[in-house]
Model the fold of this input.
Amino acid sequence: MEGLFRHYIRTHRLLMKHLNDLLEKYQLSYSLWQVIVYLKDSGTSTLVDISNYYQVEKPGITRRVRRLQESGLIKEVPSTNRREKIIELTSEGKRVYQVCREEITALEHSISEGLTEEEKQIAFQFLMKIQDNILSKEGFRSE
Amino acid sequence: MEGLFRHYIRTHRLLMKHLNDLLEKYQLSYSLWQVIVYLKDSGTSTLVDISNYYQVEKPGITRRVRRLQESGLIKEVPSTNRREKIIELTSEGKRVYQVCREEITALEHSISEGLTEEEKQIAFQFLMKIQDNILSKEGFRSE
DNA sequence: GGTTAATAGTTACTCTTGTTAATTATGTGT
DNA sequence: ACACATAATTAACAAGAGTAACTATTAACC
Done:
């Protein structure tokens, strides 16, 4: 299968460009969107949780969270633990999530046009398999 | 197909990390590797050709080419046209290409382990279809 | 043929994102 | 009580991409 990964990476660039164009309208980027999605799913979270989930170093998450806090999309939840910072979406954050979610879903549909459910299913399995293989490779060198 | 694109992007991060780790051993990165691959396929090229192919702005290509020239992997080809710069791989560049090519192919195989040719074929078609859809979307807004 | 317009490449600057290392503050375990 | 681990932050740095402005050269056209 010649060129599979090359096309994978090439397509990624195109996709990200569209996603970021879309999110830019809301003063967001994909990296900020990831935090929003994570909070939408988890309700509340610490920064370390997000760091582990996306495998991004903590300083990166600190920056993302600061920017989202500044734009009023997330807020800190009062907690007895004064070491960790627990955050959640504000109501404005939830609203923005909904709006973007719809736009992104529409984009995804238009991009998947002409593909059958079965093809998408196999593509999904392909991704999961690759992910597994990479992660198990990493496991062997103890990461 | 819920989460298809999320997984796509997530997997991309993992993949790039491995590719860059591999290329780092040769003082390369994926962005430099792209130029090498393009020159391997095309023989000679101008900077604008590369810029168009990868859809990266010209200053980015200028930077990549400068770095590759400094490390002696590409060189300028004498030409009558003094406006455009025609470049090609040096013999050292071709040697490095071969070495990296083998390593990358091995990495790709290990990452694709457990997938049938048919599955890879469908995944490839999936990527091509997405690419087409995105590009035709762009076409409509005249890019 | 000479002026105008387009093109190739570069430079300077900015932005986003990510990394490592060091620091502070707080919590846990023994 | 003390040593150790953990959460978060700051600072410094690097890779990569983008825009705008500029130079030099070529192509186009009247």
